[in-house]
Fold:
Amino acid sequence: MSLDVYVGSLTHYYAGGWQKHAPAEPVAIVRADESVDEAVSSPEEIHPAILAWRDQLTHALADHVERPLDWDESDTALCFTDEPTWECYASLLLWAAYCEHPELPRPREVTEDWISDPALQRSAEPSFDSAFPQLVRDVEIWLPNDLPFVFRAPDPTGHELHIGSSAALCEELAELNRRTWNASELTLAQWRREPADYEAPLELGARFAFSIMTDLARKALAHRLVMKLDY
Structure:
């Protein structure tokens, strides 16, 4: 199963036009009344449902945010994508987890059962004060808003997942770099041009995914766009 990282409007995402292969079936979008409506696929139908979903999130987070959630859902919103691969993305998550659990022996390569890794499990525990929650807490959507926490909520299709902040993600990626590689912008650009092969060493995969996630998180924040995993 492949992994893409999408940055853009959710209207464009759920309309499917950004994908190499458009979805065979229309997307069922959850309306503001929280019932699943008939499947819709056109941007004209999806757009108001996305805005209603955003309003729902703002209402649910009213005690934690100073202003309503906002990002670009216009027809002219930019779109960026890249493919870090699951192996490299998993390597990045493990790199972050072992950074804050140096007492555990870090594996040389990522395994298929990386979700069960002891360091990642410790970092993902809600009781643990992780320095990298945007990475280790199973986030699938990052909003370009100042949210210093990860929360669980339904996405526009009603699927429950973890949602975070691209602003916080940028800060955590920068902190991970400071604690481990201290790589320059020139080095990051070089890592981006060197994709890691399947079963590559964990650090090599982590570097590749780090360069992609850093670039896309910055773009999401700069252009006020949603960042989302797609698989």
About this structure: Confidence is low (pLDDT under 50) at residues 20-26, 31-37. The helical segments are 10-15, 43-60, 86-99, 118-124, 133-136, 166-179, 185-192, 202-223. The two ends are 7 Å apart (CA to CA).
